[in-house]
Amino acid sequence: SKTSREIYSIVLKDTSAYGGFPFYGIVILAALLTEDFSFAYNLVISLIAVTIIVAATRLVYFKPRPGVKKKKYATVYERIDNSSFPSIHVARAVMLSGAFYAKAPVLTPLLLFMILLVILSRLHFKRHDMIDITAGFVIGFVLSMIFF
Q1: Rounded to an integer, what distance in angstroms lies between the CA atom of residue 117 and that of residue 100?
Q2: Which residue from 8, 30, 15 is spatially nearest to 90, judged by alpha carbons?
Q3: Of 7, 6, 16, nearest in space to 116 by CA
Q4: Under a CB-based contact definition with an 8 Å cutoff, are residues 50 and 139 in contact?
């Protein structure tokens, strides 16, 4: 029904925040406030690492977002932001899940569910395709193994 589709869209939109930069920042702030400085440090360094890796990849290999034609962009930031490969949202969601798993493995089902919802949101809103998602997942997984 139309109502259930609207609810699905709202849930996916809100859940997408789990892979967003602001949410990652809130987790860093929480680690600092609880004086878990080692954890906060790893979160900051992993965030910097994923940002550099994704930005560099997008500069070298530009792939337009699904349904968007390739065009010229005025700034380097616009070009990076409008490239879909790889998905930085998925990479950050996987890294956060790896970080939370390191602290509380009992959360595994919830963490996997959150990653799945972020993936579904990126596909639903046509920000990425499965190739972008897979690349983001791999980057996030590798970095989470390194940092957490």
Answers
A1: 16
A2: 15
A3: 16
A4: yes
Q: For residues 46 and 23, give the distance between their C-alpha atoms in angstroms, rounded to a whole number.
A: 14
Say if CB 79 and CB 73 are below 8 A apart. Answer: yes
Distance of alpha carbon 58 from alpha carbon 62, whole angstroms: 5
Residue 56's nearest CA partner among 141, 133, 139, 122 is: 139
Q: What is the pLDDT of residues 90-133, one digit of tens each?
A: 999 999 999 999 999 999 999 999 999 999 999 999 999 999 99
Alpha carbon distances (Å) from 34 to 31, 38, 77: 5, 11, 34
C-alpha 86/C-alpha 136 separation (Å) is 5
Paired tokens of 28? 């860093």
- pTM of the shown model: 0.90
The pLDDT-based confidence of 143 (bands split at 50, 70, 90) is: very high
At a CB cut-off of 8 Å and minimum separation 6, what does 141 contact? 94, 98
